[in-house]
Amino acid sequence: MLAEKNEYIGETIVTMHRMTEDEKIAEQCRARERYERDTLSIYRKGIREGIENEQEKSKAFIEEKDKIIAEKDKSLAEKDKSLAEKDNTIAKKDKSLAEQRNTIAELIRQLEELKEKIK
Q1: 4-32 pLDDT, tens digit each
Q2: With contact defined as beta carbons under 8 Å apart, do 4 and 11 qualify?
Q3: Does pTM top 0.85 for this prediction?
Q4: For the chain, is the Cβ count within 10 Å smaller at the N or the C terminus?
């Protein structure tokens, strides 16, 4: 054929064949690079989404714990108030008892004086 009769045409065919093979290899390399880039991108996106998901869970957990702590703080404040009221009541009763003791002591003293006068 033509390639057999003309060496330039034969060389051109061989060169074109090599170029086609080189283009195939180059395309395979580009495809491999694209695959690696896409895989890394997907991996990073998954990591990012996982981190964001865990942050959201942590935030929700912390908010729930804060709510529980606030409720317990409120309960403790109410108990502290109740204890303060009870302490106040006890102090008033202690004062009343002291006054009653003083009154009894005064009455005993007066009784003793009356006994002395009667004798």
Answers
A1: 565 656 676 667 677 777 788 888 888 89
A2: no
A3: no
A4: C
